[in-house]
Amino acid sequence: MNFRFTIGRKIGTGFGILILSTLIAFLFTNTTLKESRKINDKINQVYNPSLKALDELNKVVLISKPLISYWVNVQTIPENPDKQKLRENNFREYPALKGRIKGLSLRWRKDDRDSINDVFTKIDELFAIHKEVMDSINSFASYSDPLLIFNYGPLVETGGDIDLKTQAVQQKLSRIIDRQNRDSKRINNDMLLSFRTLTTIVTGLGIALLIGGLLIAMFTVRSIVRPISYLKKILISMGKGVLPDEKIRNRNDEIGEMSLALNDLVDGLRSTTHFAKEVGSGNFASEYNPLSDQDTLGHALLKMRSELDENERFLEAKVVERTEEVVKQKEEIETKNEILEVLYKQVTDSIRYAKRIQEAILPPQSVLRIILPNSFILYKPKDIVSGDFYWVEQKNGKTLFSAVDCTGHGVPGAFMSIVAYNILKYVVNNNNESQPARILDALNIGVSETLHQSNSETQSKDGMDLALCSIDFKNKELQFAGAYNPLYLIRDGQLLEYKADKFPIGYYTGSTAKPYKNNVIDLKSGDMVYVFSDGYVDQFGGPAGKKFMANRFRNLLLEIYQKPVEEQKKILDNQLIDWQGVHEQVDDILVMGIKIV
Description:
- Helices cover about 60% and strands about 10% of the residues.
- With about 600 residues, the chain is of the alpha+beta class.
- A five-stranded antiparallel sheet has the order 1-12-9-6-7, covered by helices on one side. It has a five-stranded antiparallel sheet with strand order 2-3-4-5-8.
- Helix 5 packs parallel to helix 6 and helix 9 (about 410-430) packs across helix 10 (about 435-450).
- The longest helix has about 80 residues, at about 160-240.
């Protein structure tokens, strides 16, 4: 099993080292202090009292020598202070001091205990001799005994037995004191050495703890804080929808486990993104495995893929069904179009044939050149057949001509033009009247009766507008009557407008029709006469798509009236084409011009 240096172990190791170092410092300090306390106790309770007691013992031995010598050599009474002092020294202080030293010697080394016992034996022997002297010379009178002085006097002399024994005791005692002093100094030095060692170790441990703490802090920052900060940065970027470009480096600890999980999450998101794109582009066979059973997004995407796949199949079926319906409808439309094309061709052919019939009522050019020389007719039907037509006739030595604008255009207008032509022809041929106004009166009644139009406002108002003229070229006289359509006469650069009556041909209000006004105009050579329908002036076009209008039409006529009639026709036609441009022709167009020569 591989050892994993986890974050917990890292932190535990760091704090363990710190705690162990602190524990070692504490134990060592405690041990050192205990040992030092023992040494100090030994110094204070054994060595110092022992040295003091030995020193006192040495004084007791040392002071006994002159006192015993005084006792022997100076004749005094027994109550002499020095004799009292000797007794106090030998028999009270010494026993007490001996007992105290023996108690202290129990904690001495064995050789010192043996030595002090030997010293006590010798002191006992010495003080036994003192006692013998003190008992023998015990009164003032005893100094008179020569034998006593002879026997004990040499003992206290230099080199005597008491002197030698005293020196021997002092020598032994001095060696014991020296050893005690050395031991005391040695143990004191040991204690100082322990304190210095303790100071060194505590200082070293303190430095080691400081360095160790810094190293542990640096190690923690490098091995824990920085990787966690890096993972935090990646998670913040992922929160903004930005995935890392590289995989996160693996580690053998908890951060490594988080890195591994984050790498798996990034791979999962990339896979999910790729899967979503594939599904969005219609690739429903794209493979995708959720990250786990609890991967809500992954399972939702799989469900979405299934639903989209099903919807697409449903839509494809719908498209096929609709396509079949469209194909079927197209076939039906094509069939109907074919039928309509046939019908259209039949209708068109019928209309074209009707055009031939309508053209048959129009005077041919050969007749026009004879009846109306120096004239032009600009005739532009909107459709195949026209509601406008021109009419020319001669009667009673006069030339009758008219520009007729029937209601509507195309087939209805053409029908209306046939009706108007027949009635006009009937009126002119069956009456001896050549005055235009009276012709219009008869025409008005005839059309109204033919179309069964009364003055009721609920009936249709089919009819026509027209300008009818009668010219006597011989006498240069022109008569004019109009229904809505005026007559223009241009003479010497002036355009004279002869207005028409403001009621049409074909229907009227009241019980009887109003009579039309007959205008008589004397002509001069060079005059130019124009009659026309409203198709020219109502044509839309120009820069603003507006009507040509009567004012522009009058100005144009003023510009061209002196030109040959055929050139006037060409100019009028070209000007109309230029004005119309892309606009559709809105009505039938008819303009007649007659130059008076």
